[in-house]
Amino acid sequence: MTETLTPSEDGRYDIGTCRSVQVTCISEMGWFDNDQLLATIKSAGGGDTANQWKIPWDRDNAAGSCSLIRMETLDGEHHTFLMDAGWNREYMDAAFQREGIDRMLASGEIEFLFITHEHMDHYWGLETVLKSNPEIPILFPATFHAEGMAFLDGARFPESGAENRIPHRGRRIPLEPGNVYRLFDGCAAAVFDLPILIGVRGEESLFFHVQDKGIVCVTGCCHQNILTFADFARDRLQGGEHLHGIYGGLHIAPFGPLKEEQEEMIRKIGRYGFDRIACNHCTGKPAVERMLELGYPIVEGRGREGEDGPRFIGNGDTVRFG
């Protein structure tokens, strides 16, 4: 399933080429109330010191981030996998039923689960996945902590409310920072090693090289920041001279008004020449509004499942590249 690539003499990786990639947002709402989430983190010691597995989260404020990815290779093969598992099990149960993900998991149509990082809103809904297919292969960053690994085995953390009652019985594939892994022809993953708030480390993201279009970058939260993410695609991947699109949370202004450094980051996004920007989750409404003001090619959604307006690719929305 994974092939560790070796760069060519020019330092670039050849990830192959695919015909298309399509992403459906199952849920982009990690939580419902920003102020409540921030107050909970502050009361636990703050984002730089608190451990997410020991924070007494309010489950009524928990939702989850999860996307379904479909791609087609040049020879006509179709591959389908899930990116992230959300947070609140009951919320994710409903989302999976609404979009038919539970049936796709049970039938084996979804080939594997790709966990971008260990944060609660991307990982703690794992049981919702495993109840339909406990043997599904799981790809995750090798930077997972001991708690994250125990969670795979069926652990409970009463202080935080994290619980997985269904031990994972399938193949586990940790991806190491510093490597580029080809998953399919035209699809690759890389882990960005960095400390993240509330005791998490490392985020893995996806790259697709779409024929005649260029590179598509797909991320959960982009804690590595959008400029680092885009620079990697442009400078380290064959085909990176044209960045066709990006999907996911861009972690620019998730909690409030734009700061000066965030404004500068948004201006710099323009230098990459993306054809399509399909952002949601932790991008932040002020960031999206500023990108629209700058004339960036934002792909808007329908806001049909609780999101605030059509700025984001929201729950149930699909974007296709290629």
Account of the 3D structure:
By secondary structure, the chain is α/β, with parallel strands linked by helices. 23% of the residues lie in helices and 27% in strands. It has nine helices and 16 strands. It has helices spanning 34-43, 89-99, 101-107, 120-123, 126-130, 146-153, 226-236, 260-269, 285-293, and strands spanning 3-4, 18-27, 66-73, 78-83, 113-114, 138-141, 156-157, 162-163, 172-175, 180-184, 187-196, 200-210, 214-218, 243-249, 276-280, 318-321. It starts with a strand and ends with a strand.
N-C termini distance: 23 Å
Going across the biggest sheet, name each strand in turn. Answer: 1-10-11-12-13-14-15
Q: Using the CA coordinates, give the radius of gyration.
A: 18 Å
Mean pLDDT: 96
Global outline: globular
Give the low-confidence spans.
Answer: none
Main sheet properties? 7 strands, mixed
Structural class label = alpha/beta
Report the strand count: 16
Helix percentage: 10-25%
Strand percentage? 25-35%
Quick rundown:
This protein is α/β, with parallel strands linked by helices. The chain has 9 helices and 16 strands. It is 23% helix and 27% strand.
